[in-house]
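Ops channel
N.P.: pipeline sanity check, posting one input/output pair.
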């Protein structure tokens, strides 16, 4: 039940808009999400490197439901 609820929320554009525009949730996510664009993520990784830390970046695409969509997402990289 929790899994289906979380998947439904992940598909919701309204929920995504609320999470990204709400100051509290945005600050909470910022610790785990380096950026919403590649440039933002690279800048965050460089900040970590400049502070003497290592960083790795992952392109998240866990909400892929079909093989066709999975292939399309892979092509975007």
């Amino acid at each position: 039940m929790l899994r289906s609820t979380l998947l439904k929320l992940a598909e919701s554009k309204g929920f995504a808009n609320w999470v990204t525009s709400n100051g509290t949730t945005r600050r909470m996510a910022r610790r785990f999400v380096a950026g919403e664009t590649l440039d933002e993520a690279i800048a965050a990784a460089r900040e970590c490197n400049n502070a003497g830390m290592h960083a790795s970046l992952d392109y998240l695409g866990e909400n892929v439901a079909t093989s066709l969509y999975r292939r399309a997402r892979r092509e975007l990289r």
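N.P.: looks fine end to end. DSSP finds five helices and no strands in the chain.
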